[in-house]
Amino acid sequence: MRSTNKKLTPFGKLIVKALADRDMTKAQLAAQIGASPQYLSYILTGTRSGEKYLPVIITALELDPHKVEKALVA
Questions:
Q1: Cα distance between residue 62 and residue 2, in whole Å
Q2: Which of 10, 24, 42, 49 has a CA-to-CA distance to 34 between 20 and 30 Å?
Q3: Residue 2 placed within a domain
Q4: Per residue in 13-54, pLDDT tens?
Q5: CATH at residue 25
Q6: How would residue 8 be classed by pLDDT, with cut points 50, 70 and 90?
Q7: Roughly how many angstroms between the first and final C-alpha of the chain, as a whole number?
Q8: In Å, how far are 44, 48, 63 from 72, measured between CA atoms?
């Protein structure tokens, strides 16, 4: 079995908090943005940039783009 101990990036932490605030799962967000749950996990851990999904994630979770930008450069 593969290890799932990858740490979340600051962006990943922002997304997980936003999901919790909305009582939404990662699987639900993945379906909403058109990505697999595994690929979403890759984005949250920084394994993949997920650049094409960022605008959709921001819209889906109604995030402040400035907070997202700060999290991405951290």
A1: 33
A2: 10
A3: no
A4: 999 999 999 999 999 999 999 999 999 999 999 999 999 999
A5: 1.10.260
A6: very high
A7: 31
A8: 11, 12, 13
Amino acid, single-letter form, for residue 1: M
Q: Is residue 70 part of a domain?
A: no
d(CA 43, CA 49): 6
Q: Are 18 and 68 in contact (CB under 8 A)?
A: no
Domain assignment of residue 51, yes or no = yes
The residue count of the chain comes to 74
Q: Are 60 and 28 in contact (CB under 8 A)?
A: no
Which residues contact residue 61 at a Cβ distance below 8 angstroms, ignoring those fewer than 6 apart?
15, 18, 19, 22, 24, 29
Gap between the Cα atoms of 16 and 24, Å rounded: 9
pLDDT band at 5 (very low <50, low <70, confident <90, very high): low
Question: Residue 24: which domain range?
Answer: 10-63
